[in-house]
């Protein structure tokens, strides 16, 4: 019988690898660049900024540029993002047509292309299949994914059959080049030219410069929103909430919430949080005669608050694990009463029994607020009653401090020995690491007054 032969993988020749996987050299660097995207997001915007040096900015053109900036930004945030990518609400034909037009004017690809990539981003967040993964650095997630070619085999796949059945999406994708040219540059120039005679200023400011600004603002959702801010709902992935990102992106800055509840038409759920996209969608649903939006989806507030509470508890547990709560009972030796008495005053120790747990209070005798004489009088004794109101109802801080002085458990001492043996079955709640959660008023040294015995007639 012939011995089995081993199979050795044949390496792919460098010239057959995708260009993104080939080493960077002086001879192939230009092949790594997506020149169409680079032209649209770097070269043309840079040329537009250069033209501002010699192009006067009139007040009407400035106001029109600002207005068209917000219109095209809403085309992305309210249209490409919340309507088509996440289907957070429904929109009538006139609004859908408006959003498709203004979205094209934002110069960020067709609805179909943009939404497909964004759905992949949500499905494969922070992985190699994420089209603009924040794990590859802030430059890549902001701009690099657009200007450098990527291996299409590595991209995450998503279902966009719903988009392929939308005639507006299909038309815009099929004729995107013409839609972009007209919506991004010709239309704003026509408005300024026909309106007040500023043809060139309309092209430069409302077209080129405005397009540059709306691009960079939207790209911040991929970069800045994964870089700065808080994570009130989940910290396992990079999305974050921050007011600055919200201000830049027309309300898309509450990204941690959005990644947890992507089907919600809101990004900000508090009334004081900046989310003009949410406000516009809502106002369009409240138009008295002909509302343009409907079926505004919101996630159940109960589930939202559960997520927030779980994250808060996680933060509390992390803080708790950094504090000294005393040795767990399961790690303490079990001593008999005679052993406890024998060790109570030996070798500088000062052992006292409280609620079945043996504590060494020797280092605290001189600091005891009630004086040395009182605390020395309970050494070698059961001070449960005295510590729990017999002499003084000790504070929560006193109970917490006492827990750091545990040295043993008394055999047969109340029910503490059972807690020690059963471990997870004890009376205390557990944190996510399985450690006992010691809340105020629940320290094991606290013993309440016994209930009155039942009287049998």
In short:
The protein has 457 residues and is mainly alpha-helical. It has helices at residues 35-51, 59-85, 93-105, 111-123, 138-147, 161-164, 167-174, 176-196, 199-219, 243-248, 255-260, 276-285, 301-321, 337-343, 372-376, 384-387, 396-403, 416-422, and strands at residues 90-91, 293-294, 334-335, 351-354, 357-360, 406-410. The chain is elongated and about 100 Å long.
Descriptive tags:
457 residues, two-stranded antiparallel sheet, disordered N terminus, disordered C terminus, Flavocytochrome B2, Chain A, domain 1, 4% strand, mainly alpha, four-stranded mixed sheet
Could you describe the 3D structure shown?
Helix content is 46%, strand content 4%. The protein is mainly α and 457 residues long. It has two domains: 28-310, no CATH class; 329-425, Flavocytochrome B2, Chain A, domain 1 (Roll). The strands form two sheets. It has a four-stranded mixed β-sheet with strand order 3-6-5-4. Strands 1-2 form a two-stranded antiparallel sheet. Helix 8 crosses helix 9. It starts with 34 loop residues before the first helix and ends in a 35-residue tail after the last helix. The model is unreliable at 1-10 and 450-457 (pLDDT under 50). It comes from Clathrospora elynae.
Layout of SSEs?
Blueprint: H1 35-51, H2 59-85, E1 90-91, H3 93-105, H4 111-123, H5 138-147, H6 161-164, H7 167-174, H8 176-196, H9 199-219, H10 243-248, H11 255-260, H12 276-285, E2 293-294, H13 301-321, E3 334-335, H14 337-343, E4 351-354, E5 357-360, H15 372-376, H16 384-387, H17 396-403, E6 406-410, H18 416-422
Parallel strand pairs: 3-6
Antiparallel strand pairs: 1-2, 4-5, 5-6
Helix pairs in contact: 1-9, 2-3, 2-4, 2-8, 2-9, 3-8, 8-9
């Amino acid at each position: 019988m012939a011995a089995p032969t081993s199979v050795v993988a044949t390496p792919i020749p460098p010239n057959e690898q995708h260009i993104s996987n080939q080493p960077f050299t002086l001879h192939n660097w230009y092949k790594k660049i997506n020149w169409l995207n680079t032209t649209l997001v770097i070269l043309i915007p840079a040329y537009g900024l250069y033209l501002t040096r010699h192009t006067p900015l009139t007040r009407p053109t400035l106001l029109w540029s600002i207005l068209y900036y917000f219109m095209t930004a809403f085309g992305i945030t309210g249209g490409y993002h919340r309507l088509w990518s996440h289907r957070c609400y429904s929109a009538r034909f006139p609004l859908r047509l408006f959003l498709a037009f203004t979205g094209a004017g934002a110069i960020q690809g067709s609805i179909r292309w943009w939404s497909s990539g964004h759905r992949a981003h949500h499905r494969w967040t922070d992985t190699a299949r994420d089209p603009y993964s924040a794990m590859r650095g802030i430059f890549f997630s902001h701009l690099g994914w657009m200007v450098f070619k990527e291996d299409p085999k590595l991209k995450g796949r998503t279902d966009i059959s719903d988009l392929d059945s939308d005639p507006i999406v299909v038309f815009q994708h099929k004729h995107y080049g013409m839609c972009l040219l007209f919506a991004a540059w010709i239309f704003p120039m026509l408005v300024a030219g026909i309106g007040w005679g500023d043809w060139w200023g309309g092209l430069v400011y409302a077209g080129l410069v405005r397009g540059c600004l709306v691009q960079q603002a939207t790209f911040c959702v991929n970069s800045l929103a994964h870089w700065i801010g808080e994570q009130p709902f989940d910290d396992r992935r990079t999305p974050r909430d921050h007011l600055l990102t919200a201000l830049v992106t027309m309300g898309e800055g509450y990204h941690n919430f959005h990644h947890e509840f992507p089907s919600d038409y809101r990004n900000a759920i508090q009334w004081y949080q900046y989310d003009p996209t949410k406000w516009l969608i809502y106002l369009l649903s409240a138009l008295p005669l002909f509302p343009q939006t409907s079926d505004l989806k919101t996630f159940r507030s109960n589930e939202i608050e559960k997520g927030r509470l779980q994250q808060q508890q996680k933060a509390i547990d992390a803080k708790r694990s950094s504090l000294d709560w005393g040795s767990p009972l399961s790690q303490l030796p079990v001593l008999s009463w005679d052993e406890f008495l024998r060790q109570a005053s030996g070798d500088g120790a000062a052992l006292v029994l409280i609620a079945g747990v043996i504590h060494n209070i020797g280092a605290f005798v001189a600091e005891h607020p009630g004086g040395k004489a009182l605390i020395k009088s309970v050494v070698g004794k059961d001070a449960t009653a005295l510590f729990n109101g017999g002499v003084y109802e000790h504070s929560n801080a006193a109970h917490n401090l006492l827990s750091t002085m545990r040295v043993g458990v008394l055999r047969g001492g109340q029910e503490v020995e059972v807690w020690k043996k059963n471990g997870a079955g004890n009376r205390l709640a557990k944190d996510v690491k399985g450690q006992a959660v010691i809340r105020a008023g629940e320290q094991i040294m606290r013993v309440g007054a016994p209930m009155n015995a039942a009287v049998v007639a």
